[in-house]
Amino acid sequence: MTTAIIPTKDVAALLRKELRSRFPGVKFSVRCSTGTASAWINVHHEDGPTSAQVDEICGKYEGRSFDGMTDTYTDHGTTLVAGKPGEMPTEVLYGCDGINTARDFTPAGNLAAQRIVRESSNMPHLILCDDAGELVEGRDITDGQGCEFNDGHHAWDRPQLSAWSAVRFLLQHTDLTPAPARQ
Description:
By secondary structure, the protein is α/β, with parallel strands linked by helices. It has 2 domains: about 5-105, no CATH class; about 105-170, no CATH class. It is built from 4 helices and 8 strands. A hairpin with a 4-residue loop joins strand 4 and strand 5 (about 70-75). The protein starts with a strand and ends in a 12-residue tail after the last helix.
């Protein structure tokens, strides 16, 4: 069986297509790196699916991954990809050395975190953002009582907590993908 090598640029196009189909309504930035990191892809999105959901999809497209402990790459081998009905699958090798993902939150995401604080936290009096979703900046929102802050399942284990950190802590497992539009 012949192995088809898919270049990083084409891997980015495949990844972009799958992310759009799996999470309609969420805007993703999928960019190839340049220079010595040209076999790497960077994926960024706001709100939408959790980082774990995006990482699961991205992992399928990595031909290799970097192990920082040993300062080496681990080869993921080839993948069988189904083609048209009646055809044999194609063995492909993704030419991507790694995919970095990042998730940020819009004012709507900040407001979602504020709702979580009010509904499930033992500190419902905390204010993370104003009514427009702008984060409270420049102060410790827990006043050194960070051990008491939780999302109903996990506790914040640091003595201080900024609004920015609280949003990320509260929404790390929360899917904010918009519901599909009704037709």
